[in-house]
Fold each of these.
Amino acid sequence: MMPFDRREFSRSAAALAAASGLPVAALAQAPQAGKPKGPTPQRGGQLVVAQCSANRRTASASNARHPYFFVDLSTRVAYNCLTWVNENLEWQYELAREIVPTDDQMNVWDVSLREGVLFHDGREMTSADVAASFEAHRTGAVFATQIQKIETLGRYKLRFFLKEGNAEFPFVLAEYQHGIMQADSPSRIGLNGIGTGPFKFVAADPNRSATFERHDKYWRKGFPYLDRLEIHNREGQQEAALNGLRARQFDAVLTIDSRGLRQLQRESDLDFSVGRGSYHFVIQLPKHPGSPFEDRRIRQALALAIDREAIVRIAYGGKYGWVGNDSHLVSTDPSFLYRPAKRDVAAARKLLAEAGYPKGITLPTLYYSPQLPEVPIYFQVLQQTVKEAGIILPLEERPADGYAAFRTGDNDLSKGKFHKFAMTAVGSRNPGISLARMRGEFVESGHWRGPEQDRYMDLYRRAMVTRDDTLRKRLYHEMQGILQQEVPAILPAGGDSILVKRKHVQNLAYHPQIWSIRFDEVWRSA
């Protein structure tokens, strides 16, 4: 598990760790209400924020308040989860107060809840609400599909049964889609937008904006400081968002690229915050019948032909990006395994010739969506660099609306309507989640099949029931080595999250996980 400051743990936590057989580090401390560093916070006021990365499903007026469809993935404005991942990518308790596995198989976990947590309408949260929420998440949220069933063990306790062991299950409970909603029928749960978060909905304009006001009975005593919060979706509209900042329409703009940062660095009334190792892009390589990517040599050639350093240099200014290793892990993850194979155009050409393309190959169209400001530049650099290896790579930009459904298709090889050769943004997560995304049934793996995929999943299952951090990390390294040889998908390079804010905005720092940013402790100075 992730390390924590042991001074923050009570004797009861230590006793619980001993009883469960887990190291004390596995029992993360809850977020504590306390005075932020710096000047004394002031209560009141409004904050208006623009977000340049919305990454959301198409919403309508009927579902715009649901945690799956919210305008910018800042779901912890209106909702909480059972756990939270902090800025150091360590999990902490949020609505849960204890989480322990029941045995060495790591596939049954008991969760005890905070008592006295109130929803926005004043009703207390209980295990019935959590159970109903996860019944919905099991079918509506990809990372919750590992949950087989949930049982309530009283008003404030539940038991989660997993399909397989997962030593890192507390991280799963922190996923942004796993917000706790009021119990309701499966067709209605979450649509009212009532959560336990620091702010409650006032209005929602689907895919455009959302307005909130303070939840006065928030369970984190003393928070939030702000009276009101507005979040505006400016996906793919960085210049418009920055112009709004200059015109004082916005107090902060989230997820700008390094070009936007350079434009604003000389303005004395602005501050910046960087979340390192935040996100990157997965290029899914479909392996359906007739696809060139069924041939591993073509996948390897494409991976070797990409000039990853050029992407970092041009798309990220060389300072706010990093080279990927063709796994979903980000470079700041302690388990990240650096890719030994550097760019090698000659080796790429040789692989293509062996695959029957001595004069080069024209690949199918690669589709992308401008989910982040630098995406068009990123893929233009990629397109130009692979030409040197004789790879012609047509590109097509698709609108953000409907893009997820477009790239995924039916996701059923038997129907003959296959997913696309396409990209999508992926964020910083723990290895248990990140490496699971190369399962053969997942679109992001391109439906990777064969003995190496079987070996990969065997290593994954072993890792998920391995308590020892060092041993689990070794298994993670072996898995990444398989990915770098097999290349089921390509993740060439990634970037850091950057926000810009006016200096009257206090205690707003970006989070490596864009969706985990919280506004609880943000306040306005005079």
Amino acid sequence: MARESSALRAMKSDIELAQAATLLPILELASQRYRLPLTALEPYGHTKAKLTLAALEELKARPQGKLVLVTAISPTPAGEGKTTTTVGLGDGLNRIGKRTVIALREPSLGPVFGVKGGAAGGGMAQVVPMEDINLHFTGDFNAIALANNLLAAMIDNHIHHGNALDIDPRRITWRRVMDMNDRALRQTVVSLGGPANGMPREDGFDIVVASEVMAILCLATSLDDLKQRLGDIVFGMNRAGQRLTARDLNAHGAMTVLLKDAIKPNLVQTLENNLAVLHGGPFANIAHGCNSVMATQAALRLGEYVVTEAGFGADLGAQKFVDIKCRKSGLQPSAVVIVATVRALKFHGGLDLKALGAENLEALAKGLANLERHVRNVREQYGLPCVVSINHFTADTPAELQLIQDAMAKLGVPAVVARHWALGGAGAEDLAREVVRLVEGGQAAMKFTFADEDSLWNKMHAIATKVYGAAGISASSKIKAQIQALQDAGYGHYPVCVAKTQYSFSTDPTARGAPSGHTVDIREVRLAAGAQFVVMICGDVMTMPGLPKEPAALRIDIDSQGRVSGLF
């Protein structure tokens, strides 16, 4: 195994570890260990492949494994390591004899070149080939962007050539997308330059992962379902106030063609040569933040256990995983892993980033409020048993680790110190055993935060009060009227997908710990009729992020031999 190489252990950066790893040919791995015929695989080079649609159908005849969800505390600049834990746990389960497949989301280029620098795990718990995964991979996000922007182009083209549908340019809600952080494109004006270029109107860009097309791809169950959902997209209104769909433009067929390969789940491997399925879905702060239903279902037929993740904290990713993905697909996790670090909890306790390396039990005790609320949400709001994984850092002291374990013991929740970043699957064996104990205990009784028959307003209120600890929600009279209009138009049975800051239970990203009694203000409402949910944008969160003052792109480079550096 690659993890056994002493040379790997001596290296420091994630990309160096990934580049030095010995990868198995993906066709060999998938066919020999996971019993997939070669005809089920479409190779993208030697280390990546897609599962064919025919293979996805054939897999349904196999028995279904157990699903484990990895989520986390509210993220901090100190880092938590949710993806790293997902990979390490998967490797750990394989080490203790449980055939396990990992189901992850694909990275977006925006964060790769912006803040994070990569999203394929870290240390000895990574999925590889890391550079490919973090860059263009198999082109899925590019295809999603093209499908999204084809609809945008057809809308403006229809208006230019006579506007038979009587599209009201003032009521077009469909936005263009690109997979890069670019704040300058949040609000734009298109069709300038005279009559030959169309009718000028206000427009804007979102990042690809915020596109409804991304959500549709991740929630679709077949190519036919994908096409149906794309046709249901509502892009705006005509001058009579009637909603118009992509089907009215006859755009959904061509959009589906652009996505015919992107809908197929991608296969890669971990550093320990265990299978990983990566497909769609990041950004639980502005999207539903889950990998595709088709990928998760395929993984469940390939392994006895499947370890998957949902974006950001359990208030966003896990809530949407349960209330949207599970509700729509019938999937049910058997156990949940909540990732925390001593460093991040001390940050939630009020410490400055520079002070996180020193022992501080007082700050840690204060920051535990964040973890405790996430634990209560998972157990009480979602009805799922959980274990806390303490992602170990070398500066952690025995007293700090014990403090977390004692606090969790009072809640009846195990807390396991995991060292997968340094040791790979061997460092996650204790966590793996605890997960197996929870799964085999059969304690899961998943429930939703709100009922289908609740109104859209009451669904948002339930999320805010039950999960975020808020006193209530608010909105301007204009937004309230839009919500009521969607309710009256027959969309009230849809789930609500909240877009808000990931850094806090509130809409204030600086409010650490477990704030309560706040009000969640709804700034904007968007109908995602193809994805079958309603997006409520709260606070100041943006659906097109911006680059930081010193973006990760400044450190990313390539040498004359084609060797990439700077990804981490």
Amino acid sequence: MKKIFTLLAAVLVASAAFGQQKYKNIVVNGDFENEAPAYESYGDMPADAWNSFWVHEFPKGEEGESQYQGTVTIIDGEGVDGSRCAKVVARSDEQAIAAGNRVENNGNLASWDCQFFIYGTEPMLQGKEVRLTMWVKADKAGSIETQAHYGPGNYNHYQLFGNVSVTTEWTKYVSDVITVSADHSKEADGKYFQSVAFNLSTDKEGNVFYFDNIKLEMKDPKGEQTGEVSWINFMRKGIYSNDNITGTSSEGEWSCTNFTVQDLNITEGNQQQPAPVVEVPGEPGVYAVKVPVPGYYIEEVEDLDEDGNEQVDDDGNVLMKSVYKWNNGTLVKGINGNPDGAAAPARWMCQFFVSTLHKMKGGEKYKFVFKAKADQPSALGTQAHYGPGQYKDYNTFGSESDFPLTTEWTLFELGEAQGKTVPSGANGCQTITFDCVPLEGPDNTFYFIFEECSFTEEYVTDADRTLGDHEPIAVLINTDEEEKATTIDGSGMLNTFEVADFSFLDNGKDGIKLLSQKESDEEEGAFVDTFSPLMQWYDGGFIGADGYNTQELETGISIRFDNESVDGNNVNLMVWNAPDSGITVADGAPIQTQLAVSQSGWYYVYDVTVMTEADYEAYQAELAGINNVVVNKKATGIIYDLMGRKVTNPTKGIYIKDGKKFIQK
């Protein structure tokens, strides 16, 4: 065992080289000296040119209508140096009542009845350090509340920089440095923290506020990693990538695989179908993702009245009208308030969706490389979707002029090759959508060959790179001086990685990581969720009685794969509990942990339960007899664990209900 401890200790103390990192300002036009981009066109702009300042206030709206939300008012001559600044008017409670659109909190005017927003060019992710500097004044002395928002008006958390005191003279405000928490970012809910909100209606009598010279700065407290950037390619199989992808947005849950088309020739049921991979006509041995694009035609038909009767003009001529039909004969669905068939197809009515397991974050580095061509010259527009069909933003990665297609292959390289990062409009999305503009006339067909869709390890989460379901396994712990070996079936993991045996783990790059854990930092009040460093698979790792990683090597349970016991798809999982470790596993109280086997940055996760011999024998017996259980005609709905104990609120693991085994995830 000493060899194992020595090898692991050396790995655990090793660390990546980090350098100093400066704070990065993530607002544009903080001194308000340049014209702000108009609200109507912000979706077309790159992340570093977006309007950073927004407002939610009453005076721009009409009485009885909803409050105005859009770009802030910029005025001349009132700034710190007599130049330009932002002006925001917070109405009084009396005005709010008279307008009929008062925002209430416990019967009073809410402090967020009027808000001013700073919208960053990229998200402030959990663990980052953030600080705010600005100059502020008001017509009356008062106080401003600060909040963390996803985007302007999309609330995350009420505690951010605390309250800001305001006087009638320009005063420089410098916040404390805060570390972005899970409450600020709400990443677990599929949201991020990209906007600072100021609640201005703290004075119920109304006030006018002025802001100038605003800087919102962010850095990684760990420093900036030096050396080569590590990329994770989510198109690792190219056109044959076929991950099961799921997600949730405000529109609900969605699921898909990497490539999906919206087939307008399907008139009933789901128009979204997996995109086929085909051999390209005229190019033997060349395969690509095929995207059929229907053409349309114009037909002259009688212009019937509401009752279906023929109409004639004053000269007795039958009235006719033009309608638009797809080449399958069905009317083009009405858009922009037009009835069906009244207008030509919109470019987004035929779409091709490219989705990945990674949820994009505005401002992160990315590479998106593909080749495309078409049977007839055409073009592509782009959108950002949460999942296929769940729209977020248009022209996100470029417009039709950026993606001209001909009958010959054209290579497109987005992101890193252009010096661009993920646009803010794609923040929170997992789908890059192509608007396949239909042509009047014959049908068209597009072909795509994907080389990569890569993101850096800095922004890729463990969940993003975990393939397949968590596989439950039980292992036996020793009660003496000897290691205990449990043989497990590794075929699920090997099939996921598409390898035949475990030899791929010997290459020095791949290996095993021990459980995903949460650690509390009492001083910072933050939580860290991470796998421990990558190790050679036979080195393994150590856990404590709570199942979490421990660097107290001599007082932990060692779990490792035995690279000398590989038998086809089976491998021994070796467990060693040092006699003086002080860790005991009582009957009926197993330790639960996780192991993640890694291949080229991708994980296959095992949910591991460390058991005593008595529990392990019962577990094996339960597995052997699970299919022979006699079930009463009346299902009871009672849940039992594998030890036969009744369970009220099952946590993650294997259970039995009505005689059938199921996995609680």
Amino acid sequence: MEVNRRNTYLISGALKNFVLASVLTAAAAQLASTCDAIVLAQFEGEEAMSALSLVLPVTTFISCVGLLLAFGANALSAKAIGRHDLDGAAAIFSTAVWSILTIGVGVSVLAFFGIPVLMRLITDEPSLRELPAEYLRVYTLGAWLEMLSYALCLFVAADGHPRRVTVAVVVGMAVNIVVDVLAVGYLDWGIVGVACGTLCQFVANILMLSLYFRRPSCSYRLTWPTMRWRQLFRNMQGGASVSIGNVLMSVSVLLIGNICFNALGERGFFFWSVCLQVLLVTVVFINGVIEALFAIGGTMLGEHDLNGFRLLARRALLGVSVLVGLFMLVLFVPDVVGVLFGVEDPSELAALNHVVRIFSLMLIPFSLSLILVAVYQVLELDVLSVVSVVSLLAVLIGMVYCFSMSVPGHLWYAFPLGAFLFLGLQLLYSYARSRMQHGRVSGLTLIPYSSGGHSLDCSVHYQQDEVAAVLLQMRAFLEGAEIDKPAISGIEACCEELMTAIVLHAAGRVTNHSFDVHVYANHQSVLLAIKYGGRPFDPIGLGKRRMAANVTEDVSYKYMYGQNVVLIKVNQLATPGCTEAL
């Protein structure tokens, strides 16, 4: 019987599981920020609420420091988990945490003592500096808490539990709202109370997530602080493109706002403000998919599962197109824009609807470009990812500026034209690079087709005869990869026991679906991953007796991204015919 080729059933399920949790997490975090503004508006007035927008550049810069220290470490830890290198995952995790507790705290202290300078940079009007300064005097002292909270969210999600992150963020949001109301409404602390609520939110997140690190199934452990400079550099290198992108995005927003104001006046600036809010909602969907790519894709690369990562990248591109497309359809519903942004005048509403609908045409190509950049980052093509982000923003700003100078009445068409132009150039570059490498990488995503070893990849229905077929195929594959026969016999016996237990006992499965088997082999080791859906079910205990007779295998089980994962790792010794468990 021929075994099925790899399908996207489990990959799509993991992606949906992660993206849904990420979007809910982002929505909860945004709601907490919005509630800060609402509480201030209700109890302190518009001036206090406006002060929050003035501190945004400072808080954005500090969050970028957290991104620099943690975001790249997230993908690196996922790769370590995928290759079953828990010592490596511990080193990456520990380096990220200790760097936040040193560099992050240092940045927070510098920001606290530099508040007068920061206020002069933010605004030239002395009367507008008082309230933002009060907020920053509290926030900056605990800004490192935000960095640590964000880092823990990334690491827990990368370990396969994005829903736990969602729960922690929702609890933190509730704590923030309660503290805001008590501190501002009853204790009359004003904007200082909102800053306290924000820090309490981060503390609640950290406490909730810290419980996870005590679980036996957690892939991380915090080691005693040592100066791992090389690991710190790798972490920062991986997070550099995201941090640079966020800083440049903030600068681009200011530049485009000035261009719109100079070309179309206050009305044009208001229209841009609405379009910006539309873009920020879209970014919530984009970030959810990007975080899934970093976590799930990083794990797949650690397993040398390049075919799985290619399927994941394609599903991510399709998924973000569907999500953003549905959001675009909402924007085309009559009166939706007016209801959301309080525009009641019919002529003004008609003009705004026209602008938003033109602007929304850029959302899908813009999203696809950023997803491709995320793929480059997971592949550790750091220079290409930075150049891509800079080029995307440069093309958009340049196109908007050219339209403002030549045809200001059609300025809004510059956004979709710029986004489609850059996506076309990006795809053209990918195709050209694939041709130059003689087709060794994908012409769409630049994902390699080989990682220097031999790979077997398939999906198997929950049927005993298909298990027998895949075992025969696996033996032929391992023999072709020149793996020594004792290792092949041990792997085959172990896999037969595990797959039989999965077919007979895996709970919650759907029989017309399948489980995935991926085997990677080189001259040093063999790594095998079995992934299946349903409720948590550990098959290792059922096959313990037979696997005890085949002690060459290092077998582990983990429930992550809403599916079960069994990893088998065999290390081959130099002596022919011998193997050793890692």
